[in-house]
Amino acid sequence: MAYVIGVDCGTSGTKTVLFDEKGKVISSKTIEYPMYQPKNGYAEQDPKDWADAMINTIKFVVSESGVKKEDIKGIGISGQMHGLVMLDKDNNVLRRSIIWCDQRTAEEVRYMNETVGREKLVEITANPALTGWTASKILWVKNNEPEIFSKVRHILLPKDYLRFILTGEYATEVSDASGMQLLDVPNRKWSDELLSAFEIDKSWLGKVYESCEITGTLTKNMADELNLCQNTIVVGGAGDNAAAALGTGVCEDGKAFTTIGTSGVVFAHTSKISIDKKGRVHTCCAAVPNTWHVMGVTQGAGLSLKWFRDNFCMTEKETAKLMGVDEYYLMDKQAEKVPVGANRLLYLPYLMGERTPHLDPDARGVFFGLSAIHTRRDMLRAVMEGVAYSLRDCVEVFREMNININDMTACGGGGTSPLWRSMLADLYNCDVKTCTSKEGPALGAAILASVGAGIYSDVPEACKAVVKTDKICSPNAENISEYEKYYQLYREIYPALKEKFSKLSKI
């Protein structure tokens, strides 16, 4: 039996999992670390924390498993995207990493749009300039920390810094590099035009690989420390969402996944590049060679339900404690008692503004149609339906881009809700399933390692062998037509309120 390791470098911690070649978890370990916020809107982490967490979690899973080191064939790394790691000529980290959720770069985004032009940026990078992405962070350091910038010799993403620690190689891969806004996404290579415009030295950037390609092997020192063989390969790996896609089997046209966490993500695979010129969804290179993915984001998905729980569901919280069950399970049961449409009550889940499809930071949450007949139970159902409508909005943008979905997997905390899955099945008009494995990005990274190691011939073959379906929820024909009436009305509410949201933000 062959084994592979998947490392997932997240924002709250790094999780490492040792899998057998069939995707069975042999051992797993997570180590957490802090995030620093020196000013409002800033978010930073220390790359040393990531490296220490990776080394210690790999050592744990190897020793805990009892598997012979000769049988561990490869390592794949998944990671939080967009983070900036800067090294000097001696490979010392020059400053803490500015990570994905940092928002300090508004001026740099303006400069990028003025210098290159919004349309040109979308044409080359498949996305408009964004504050959270890497190019604007590089420019921020250049503008605000010139002494540090003068010492830069290497620029890496978080997971690619971990690759450097393992192999000594400066490398990246297409899915994660897509989120730097320096990659020519249609052609899967660094954009000389953008590097020239932003005065970023191309030699600072790592070689670009496909996600399943071998980027190096362990250094002798690292192999000795981890108790692994020096010829253990390290593949390109993938950004967190691209890796999660493989961990849920999304590797072919027609396949997609929906994640309901704090925010909501709808992610679809496509073998032909498709770019939304309005910038409502992100297009990036996928972890399957020579393919792409599109991703829509709704800001207040699980956040809306958590907000409702914390403010209005004290009874469920108390009862859940007494019964020893999850309070969300009881909330599901309450919402099930309300018919489709929540007795003519609609909810807009814009508690944190909205990304797809409105790109509006001023948008806010709304209950529409509230009357004296409505109960707390109706409002709960409306919140869940409103999140499902916002996720359907993402799918509608995909359809405009000629990306159609017939196979949807639900994951994240909200994906465990049978009621939410049924809403999605009815609104997407396709089966919504869950996977037996909940390892997501770590499994996706391990799948890439298994391909690089030759255990499987390509990524789709590996996904078919490793990813297994758990539950399937099929659409209900009667509900489809009923939901459609409410969804079409839901789509009319935001345009009617758009100017009012803007006025409210200025009061």
Topology (SSEs and partners):
Layout: E1 3-9, E2 13-20, E3 25-32, E4 44-45, H1 47-65, E5 72-79, E6 85-87, E7 97-98, H2 106-116, H3 118-125, H4 134-144, H5 146-149, E8 154-156, H6 158-167, E9 171-173, H7 174-177, E10 183-184, E11 189-190, H8 192-197, E12 207-209, E13 214-217, H9 220-226, E14 233-235, E15 238-239, H10 240-247, E16 255-260, E17 264-270, E18 282-285, E19 292-298, H11 301-312, H12 314-323, H13 327-336, E20 346-348, E21 366-368, H14 376-400, E22 407-411, H15 418-428, E23 432-435, H16 441-452, H17 459-466, E24 469-473, H18 477-506
Parallel strand pairs: 1-5, 5-14, 5-15, 9-12, 16-22, 22-23
Antiparallel strand pairs: 1-2, 2-3, 4-7, 6-8, 10-11, 13-14, 16-17, 17-19, 18-19, 20-21, 23-24
Shape by Cα distribution: globular
What's the number of helices?
18
Task: Please give the radius of gyration in angstroms.
Answer: 23 Å
Beta-strand percentage? 15-25%
Report the end-to-end length measured between terminal Cα atoms: 65 Å
Rounded average pLDDT: 96
Supply the number of structural domains: 2
Main β-sheet description = 7 strands, mixed
DSSP, total strands: 24
Unreliable segments of 5+ consecutive residues: none
Content-based structural category: alpha/beta
CATH topology of the largest domain: Nucleotidyltransferase, domain 5
CATH class of the largest domain: Alpha Beta
CATH homology group of the largest domain: ATPase, nucleotide binding domain
Estimate the helix proportion, in percent: 40-55%
* CATH architecture assignment of the largest domain: 2-Layer Sandwich
